Amino acid sequence: MNDSSRQFDWNHVRAFLATAEEGSLSAAARKLHLTQPTLGRQVAALEDELGLMLFERVGRSLVLTRAGTELLDHVRAMGEAADRVALVASGQSQSVEGLIRITASDVFSAFELPQALKRLRQDAPRLSIDIVASNDIRDLMRREADIAIRNVRPEQPDLIARLVQEATANFYASTDYLNRMGRPQSPDDLVDHDFIHYGDAEAMRDYLNPIGLPVTLDNFHIGSNSGLVGWELARQGFGIVAMDDQLAQGTPGMERVLPDLEPIVFPVWLATHRELHTSRRIRLVFDLLADHLSRGT
């Protein structure tokens, strides 16, 4: 380091961290909403400040040098501290306005969230809502979202989670498909039917076999990691699919398969960060969603 008393520019440190995590200047620039030349200048400025070469180019990618690797853990700790400062500051806000990001599965985002948000628009018209429709578990600790709706309980100790609903799902197919392929009368009849998977046919087979459905990989000819796509495939007559009862029962042209089967029960969790839960606007949205989901409406 050229001058041990020199203060770091956080923008330069943040540019280094994003580049190290993303592996290229272009990806890091997109993450930080900067132009690539601006980000490149910030990384170069940090190298000048430290008197170290932090990256070397390998093909189209940037690879950390030994010095960069040694620095990375320290910079990550700085990034986490900065994130925590932002969380605390956001949590102290008492204004019912601004942007709130809610993450939920694509199916939930499309079919269930809008009903809850109608009431929110009436109660807090100055709030802006960004729905992050994703089937991945987003990291609330890094502010990818303020509130998450998920079917698994978050494990991070700094998150507040509330079980708001025990939802049910069953198997459905279109009337057109059942007219063509026949309506199964028992689980054994399913061996002659097509099933739609949600991105992993083996995982679905391994889940269905223990609950008495004798399907094999030969039953899965099509699927998607998107719940919306899977449901549309079923509506178009490609086969049988598992779906939330509340959504499925409100869709014309879809029939429940083997109605005597026990439903699949799954939890619905609402989660937010502890500091964010002290924010008036986050608390308003959290409580509204909790009330809406607990009533199952």
UniProtKB/TrEMBL annotation:
Domain of life per record: Bacteria
Chain ranges passing through the membrane: none
Keyword Transcription regulation in annotation: yes
Pfam families: HTH_1, LysR_substrate
Domain HTH lysR-type intervals: 8-65
Keyword list, A-Z: DNA-binding, Transcription, Transcription regulation
One example of a Gene Ontology biological process annotation: DNA-templated transcription
Molecular function (Gene Ontology), one example: sequence-specific DNA binding
InterPro entries according to UniProt: LysR-type_TF_proteobact-type (IPR058163), LysR_HTH_N (IPR000847), LysR_subst-bd (IPR005119), WH-like_DNA-bd_sf (IPR036388), WH_DNA-bd_sf (IPR036390)
Family label: Belongs to the LysR transcriptional regulatory family.
Identification of the protein by name: LysR family transcriptional regulator
Source organism (scientific name): Thalassovita mangrovi
The organism's taxonomic lineage, starting at the top: Bacteria, Pseudomonadati, Pseudomonadota, Alphaproteobacteria, Rhodobacterales
